[in-house]
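Action item from last meeting closed. Structure (220 res):
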C-alpha cells in the first residue's frame, strides 16, 4: 500500500471550493455583481489588455463612489470590507483568467486607490450614523441595576460589587483590574486629620496607569 494519497488536482480544488462557507461565497458573489454593475454604468471593461494603471483607476473610482441600492453611503467599516474583497476578486480574475499578476494591496500603482479607500472611510467617520459602533454604553440605571444585583453580605458578592463600582469610576479597560490588589485603595484623610469620605486609588506605575487617582464616591 502506498504511503501517500492519490487525490487528483481537480479533486483538491473541489475540496478547497467546498470548504468555503456558503455565506462567504454568497457575499463574494453579491459584491462582485455590485462591482460589475458599477463597471457597466461607467463603461469599464476588465479585459486582458486593460493596463494596470487603468485597473487602479477603476478601483480608486469605486472606493469613493460605491453606494447602497438606495444611493446612500455605506458605513465606514463596510467601505474597507467591500473594497478589499472586490480588489481581491479583481486580483483573482486577472490571475485565473488571464494568468496575469497584480496586487492591489501592495503594488505602488494602486497606492492612490488604497488612499482613496482610507480617505473615504475618514470622511464617513465624521458622520455619527456612518461611524462604526462597537458596543452601546450602559445607562446609569442599568449600571445601578448590575451593581445592586450583588449581595454585599457575602465575601464574593462584596468583592464583585466593589469591583464593578471601581471599574466604572476608573474607566478600567479589559483586564486592567486583574492585577489590582486591596493595598491600592486607601481612605483619604484631609489636612485636618479627618476622613474626607473618599477613597484614594494609587496603583503601581504602569504605561496605562501613571498616577494617583481619586474616586469621588462617598464611603458607605
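Sequence:
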Amino acid at each position: 500500500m502506498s504511503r501517500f494519497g492519490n487525490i487528483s488536482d481537480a479533486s483538491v480544488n473541489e475540496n478547497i471550493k467546498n470548504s468555503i462557507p456558503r455565506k462567504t461565497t454568497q457575499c463574494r458573489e453579491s459584491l462582485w455583481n455590485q462591482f460589475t454593475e458599477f463597471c457597466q454604468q461607467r463603461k469599464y471593461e476588465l479585459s486582458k489588455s486593460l493596463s494596470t494603471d487603468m485597473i487602479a483607476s477603476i478601483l480608486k473610482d469605486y472606493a469613493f463612489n460605491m453606494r447602497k441600492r438606495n444611493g446612500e453611503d455605506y458605513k465606514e467599516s463596510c467601505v474597507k470590507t467591500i473594497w478589499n474583497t472586490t480588489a481581491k476578486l479583481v486580483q483573482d480574475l486577472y490571475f485565473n483568467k488571464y494568468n496575469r499578476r497584480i496586487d492591489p494591496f501592495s503594488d505602488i500603482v494602486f497606492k492612490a486607490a488604497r488612499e482613496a479607500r482610507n480617505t473615504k472611510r475618514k470622511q464617513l467617520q465624521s458622520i455619527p450614523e456612518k461611524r462604526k459602533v462597537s458596543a452601546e454604553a450602559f445607562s446609569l440605571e442599568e449600571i445601578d441595576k448590575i451593581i445592586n444585583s450583588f449581595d454585599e453580605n457575602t465575601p464574593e458578592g462584596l468583592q464583585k460589587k466593589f469591583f464593578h463600582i471601581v471599574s466604572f469610576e476608573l474607566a478600567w479597560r479589559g483586564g486592567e483590574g486583574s492585577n489590582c490588589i486591596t493595598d491600592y485603595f486607601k481612605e483619604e484623610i484631609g489636612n485636618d486629620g479627618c476622613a474626607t469620605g473618599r477613597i484614594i486609588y494609587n496603583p503601581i506605575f504602569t504605561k496605562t496607569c501613571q498616577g494617583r487617582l481619586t474616586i469621588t464616591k462617598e464611603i458607605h
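Note appended to the action item: The mean pLDDT is 86.
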